[in-house]
Amino acid sequence: MSHRMALAALCTVMALTSLTSTGCVGMALGTNMGLWGIPIPVSPYYQKKQEDAFWNHERYERAPILPPLQPGGPTVALDPPSDDEVVQAWEKANPIQGGLPFLHERQRNNVRIQKEKIADYIDPPRVVPLLGPVQLHHAHYKCTVYYSEVTRVGWPIPYTTVDEDAQEVLYIDHNHFHMVGNVSGGAGSNY
After folding, report:
1. Is residue 133 one of the residues assigned to a domain?
2. Which end of the chain has fewer surrounding CB within 10 Å, N or C?
3. pLDDT in tens, 13-24
4. Domain range for residue 109?
5. CA-closest candidate to residue 116, choices 80, 86, 76
């Protein structure tokens, strides 16, 4: 065996040894997961998509169960949608993320949100499984979003368009349950 072939074989063995004993690929400690042990980079788009889905589920996709309505008390919904809720619904209906930098980008500037209650009513009592006797309180809102949209195209011919009077209308429902009757569940309960 020539000197060069021996040197090449020694370099190959050293390279393989260093690969198996570094970082996440090491075979000396723990279980060997093979190729699954090597971390794979994930696009920030998918991470943000999961975070937004969790944010919406945690804050806006659940119907709370409130105490019973008191006689003579207020029966109107007191909480209009927050600006964050309107923007989240707007992004879901008309996404703007995912543009190609220097090729096609969109921006929304000077955002102004107007909220208007269009309906507020309470259903008659009914029994819902796992909840018991409840009333469903509906509150419907019409949210108009006024904004200016800037679109920049960079190829094949660079240009920019600005729509100063853009607007979008969103309808958001705030539904929640009210318990009915004596909610203590003791001997004097009504159900």
Report:
1. yes
2. N
3. 888 777 666 555
4. 46-179
5. 80
